């Protein structure tokens, strides 16, 4: 998103855009006008304003009153007012990736709303592996969003979260995602969306949006950008990787919107592909909501990709494919002519509007007096509250990952480490901590400020910025380390290295950062702790292997309270429990791997390494799921079946249980809708500190189907708090067909019979799936 400015627009479109922006009702302290105002005699009796009628009828009534010219002006993010019906203009584009953001034009800070709670960037929050935290953050963000809407400074439609798979470690937007595992990403999507949208039946607190559908995850690499990229994706990878988060977002999260992306998939722009939009998202997954384009996607596939010869064809293709709303002016400009030229029927436009208007009605935007509605009482007093800011702090603590703790030298102690040298380009970072798609934070606690709450600090930047081109500041940093009892180096990346439209060239620390760390480490008398801020993984093999560097923490982009959280972990007030949501590859991994190569599976004959822990088995710096604690947890499997029988639909031909014992049966031929495998796992905290621990449950399918199957895949995860010296029994339930299935080359999901190996840390268990025929066998 945010690309409107980067795309060449025709003069007519620029004029239109300006018209759009100037027609936005300016926010003022005075009361905002609203649709279906009960004091408005011309509209109050109309059926679309009657809350007693079913929404479907109200939408139909409203559409029936609109002329074609009015309809096309509602197909775009800056929807025009229909003054004669009392309907105000509406800006659809707001963002709330990890807090209410001002990236979209629909939300602005200022006046009574100077800022909003800025949670950690999503990759950090993902590292908590705590689904209830994800939902809790969504609830807070939507409270603040509603408060800002009531104050007239924000919309109710938020184009968040980003649930693309973090497929390549260089991706500049990897930071926005919950990582590389489809099930983690899908669970995050469903949880965050539920938090945002609320739990009030059909009514929406705010409308969320899962984006960018699909196979996007490349911004600008080696001369290929997202506006020109044609992702060549196999049916197999679509089914078991790229579709998973979106399917979970729609089916489990009940999201109110899905956004199609800029790129093409197998030669068709996603926003013009009826197979993706109409057939899959709306048909198979039953989206109850609207499909929106990425900003100017329709313009991009016409102007940049030359996918159609006329703009009217582009407009018609998009709407007929299932697009309901255009971010950008294209559909408002060209849809009417598309109808006049017979490329599109007016009813197609009405169908699109029916999807957007239904969402607006579910949000209560046609229910009259806003203050009398649910959430109508939320206001500026509900933004940046101490409780909200404390949750941002808590989220950062839960997301910090301890990667190395030799000695152990952590936690530090304020008593022994009376002076700490705090060094590095991110040591006093503020806005860097909130990453991209952020807003204006309520306040910041930088790492330096956080550490200063515990002990005396000596501060040195070491590098002027994360680029770290020169060594002018090295000596002062080395001197500081010499004098101090311990040294904390806060290094890493920021948006100048990884961002939207900016993929990374390599995986190492930028410039001379590594040299600074090693020189400081050689000079320091006390323990050296390296704290990394970044969205993507960094190859820090040098620090992992350097015995002088005793601790490494990854803080991601930890949000407004990030520095406080880092300090709490460093000084042991909090016990770290985060785990990496993505593989940390060595720099070598990318040397012969184009970002444009979409295959997930490795191909040894082509020297292709495969992607993510599910398919790549080469060396890593730190693996997916890695993360230490100040305590130690051991698992044992208390109870689990060794044989599990899967009912097979007897009406299928030749399903003789003894001949299919080694086969992978189509999931659609099994009766396993609610079939789940239950495990009881004991987790014991054998250390001396209380802590939270995530059980990551992986499964390796039978090897007979090795060419389809991942090396292993995450089938469940659960976080538990265990007090020092005590034990907890955790019940884990694995949905057999969803998670133990594999996908064949034709994209068909199958359940392999035979031994599945379940592993949780060092605990192993093997369960044999066996087919049990039901009903009549016809062969
Ligand atoms: C962030 O830090 C910079 C550099 O110290 C400072 O100039 C700026 O005012 C800070 N911004 C905020 C919002 O605190
Ligand atoms: C199932 O297959 C086995 C082995 O091929 C065969 O002996 C048996 O008769 C078959 N049963 C049915 C019901 O077809
Ligand atoms: C998960 O997050 C919630 C919300 O912060 C917290 O109350 C809970 O303790 C966390 N769970 C674990 C096991 O740490």
From TrEMBL:
MF terms from GO for this chain are: alpha-L-arabinofuranosidase activity; xylan 1,4-beta-xylosidase activity
For the keyword Glycoprotein, the answer is: yes
Signal peptide per UniProt: 1-29
Write out the GO biological process terms: arabinan catabolic process; xylan catabolic process
Any idea which UniProt keywords this protein has?
A: Glycoprotein, Glycosidase, Hydrolase, Secreted, Signal
Domain (Fibronectin type III-like) spans 693-764
The record's Pfam families line, in alphabetical order, gives: Fn3-like, Glyco_hydro_3, Glyco_hydro_3_C
- List the GO terms this entry assigns under cellular component, sorted alphabetically: extracellular region
Descriptive protein name: Putative beta-D-xylosidase 2
Q: What is the lineage of its organism?
A: Eukaryota, Viridiplantae, Streptophyta, Embryophyta, Tracheophyta
**Compartment list:** Secreted
């Amino acid at each position: 998103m945010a690309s409107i400015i980067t795309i060449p627009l025709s003069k007519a479109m620029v004029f239109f855009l300006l018209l759009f922006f100037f027609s936005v009702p300016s926010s003022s302290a005075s009361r905002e006008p609203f649709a279906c105002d009960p004091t408005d005699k011309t509209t109050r009796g109309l059926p679309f304003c009657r809350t007693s009628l079913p929404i479907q009828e109200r939408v139909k009534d409203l559409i029936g009153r609109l002329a074609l010219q009015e309809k096309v002006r509602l197909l775009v993010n800056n929807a025009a007012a229909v003054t004669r019906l009392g309907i105000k203009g509406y800006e659809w584009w707001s963002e709330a990736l990890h807090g209410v953001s001002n990236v979209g034009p629909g939300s602005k800070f200022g006046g009574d709303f100077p800022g909003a709670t800025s949670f950690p960037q999503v990759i950090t929050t993902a590292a908590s592996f705590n689904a209830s935290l994800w939902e809790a953050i969504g609830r807070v963000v939507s409270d603040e969003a509603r408060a800002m809407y009531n104050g007239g400074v924000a919309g109710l439609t938020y184009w968040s979260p980003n649930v693309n798979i973090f497929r390549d470690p260089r991706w500049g937007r990897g930071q926005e995602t919950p990582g590389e595992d489809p099930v983690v990403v899908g669970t995050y999507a469903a949880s965050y969306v539920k938090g945002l949208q609320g739990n009030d039946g059909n009514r929406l607190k705010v409308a969320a949006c899962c984006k960018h559908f699909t196979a996007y995850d490349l911004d600008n690499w080696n001369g290929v950008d997202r506006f020109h990229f044609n992702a060549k994706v196999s049916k197999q990878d679509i089914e078991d990787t790229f579709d998973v988060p979106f399917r979970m977002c729609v089916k489990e999260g009940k999201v109110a919107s899905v956004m199609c992306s800029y790129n093409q998939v197998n030669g068709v722009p996603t926003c013009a592909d009826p197979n993706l939009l109409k057939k899959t998202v709306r048909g198979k997954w039953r989206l109850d909501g609207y499909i929106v384009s990425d900003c100017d996607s329709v313009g991009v596939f016409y102007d940049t990709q030359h996918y159609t010869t006329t703009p009217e064809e582009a407009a018609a293709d998009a709407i007929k494919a299932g697009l309901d709303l255009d971010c950008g002016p294209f559909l408002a400009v060209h849809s009417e002519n598309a109808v006049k030229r017979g490329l599109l029927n007016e009813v197609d436009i009405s169908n699109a509007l029916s999807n957007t208007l239904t969402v607006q009605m579910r949000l209560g935007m046609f229910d009259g007096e806003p203050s009398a509605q649910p959430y109508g009482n939320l206001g500026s007093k509900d933004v940046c509250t101490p409780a909200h800011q404390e949750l941002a702090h808590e989220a950062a603590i839960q997301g910090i990952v301890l990667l190395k703790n030799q000695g152990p030298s952590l936690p530090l102690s304020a008593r022994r480490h009376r002076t700490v040298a705090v060094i590095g380009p991110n040591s006093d970072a503020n806005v860097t901590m909130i990453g991209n798609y952020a807003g204006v934070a309520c306040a910041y606690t930088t790492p330096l400020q956080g550490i200063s709450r515990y002990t005396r600090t000596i501060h040195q930047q070491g590098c002027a910025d994360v680029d770290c081109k020169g060594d002018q500041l090295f000596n002062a940093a080395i001197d500081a380390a010499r004098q101090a009892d311990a040294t904390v180096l806060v290094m890493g990346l920021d948006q100048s290295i990884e961002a939207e439209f900016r993929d990374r060239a390599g995986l190492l620390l930028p410039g001379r950062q590594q040299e600074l760390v090693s020189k400081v480490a050689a000079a320091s008398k006390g323990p050296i702790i390296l704290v990394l801020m970044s969205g993507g993984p960094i190859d820090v093999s040098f620090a992992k292997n350097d015995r002088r560097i005793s601790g490494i923490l990854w803080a991601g982009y930890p949000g407004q309270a990030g520095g406080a959280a880092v300090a709490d972990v460093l000084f042991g007030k909090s016990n770290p429990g985060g785990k990496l949501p993505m593989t940390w590859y060595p720099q070598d991994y990318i040397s012969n791997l184009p970002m444009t190569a979409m295959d997930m599976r490795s191909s040894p004959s082509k020297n292709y390494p495969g992607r993510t822990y599910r398919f790549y088995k080469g060396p890593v710096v730190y693996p997916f799921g890695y993360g230490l604690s100040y305590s130690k947890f051991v698992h044992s499997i208390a109870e689990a079946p060794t044989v599990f029988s899967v009912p097979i639909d007897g009406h299928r031909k030749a399903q003789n249980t003894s001949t299919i014992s080694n086969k992978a049966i189509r999931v659609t031929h099994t009766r396993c809708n609610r079939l789940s495998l239950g495990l009881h796992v004991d987790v014991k905290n054998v250390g001396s500190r209380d802590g939270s621990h995530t059980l990551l449950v992986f499964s390796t399918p039978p090897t007979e189907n090795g060419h389809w199957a991942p090396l292993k895949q995450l089938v469940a995860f659960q976080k538990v708090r265990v007090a020092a010296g005590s034990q907890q029994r955790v019940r884990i339930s694995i949905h057999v067909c969803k998670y133990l299935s594999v996908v064949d080359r034709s994209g068909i999901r199958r359940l392999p019979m035979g031994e599945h190996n379940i592993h949780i840390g060092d605990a192993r268990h093997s369960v044999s799936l066996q087919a049990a025929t039901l009903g009549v066998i016809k062969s």
